[in-house]
Design goal:
136 residues; alpha+beta; disordered N terminus; 40% strand; 5-stranded mixed beta sheet; 25% helix; 4-stranded antiparallel beta sheet; 9 strands
Length: 136
């Protein structure tokens, strides 16, 4: 019985350490570059972006952009969204920007903010849109 208790205790320590070691990736706005009639809006992460049954969705204000291209380099990830310039120009400067993995319906600003604070929920608050960062 002592061996079983020791084994169970060891398993709990190992499993607890594995869960604690998995931290939410740090994700932020990388760059915005005008490429012809589009803006390449890059989101960068401290870890590569896993591809599964969902997609990464960029939320800027009340707009959603779901067609991103995922790439990885040196263990870090990038998702690049190509936003039509006319659409980008309509976006409000200073608007909060979020990234989610998948869609759960019509996300509101309040819902996105709450989800981004959850440590195990795939939603990140990236900061505020600053059109001054756009490289032409």
């Amino acid at each position: 019985m002592k061996k079983f208790g020791l084994f169970l205790g060891l398993m709990l320590v190992l499993l607890g350490g594995a869960v604690a070691a998995r931290e939410k990736a740090v994700v932020k706005i990388g760059s915005m570059q005008q490429k012809g009639k589009d803006v390449a809006f890059a989101v960068v992460g401290s870890q590569y972006f896993r591809i599964g049954g969902n997609i990464y969705v960029l939320h800027i204000g009340d707009r959603e952009f779901a067609h991103g291209r995922v790439s990885k380099s040196n263990g870090k990830g990038t998702v690049t969204y190509y936003i039509p310039l006319a659409e980008f120009n309509k976006l409000q400067d200073g608007t909060n920007v979020y990234l989610t993995y998948g869609r759960s319906g019509h996300e509101t600003e309040q819902k996105l903010e709450g989800m981004s604070k959850e440590p195990n929920f795939p939603c990140w608050m990236l900061g505020k849109l600053s059109k001054e960062q756009l490289v032409k």
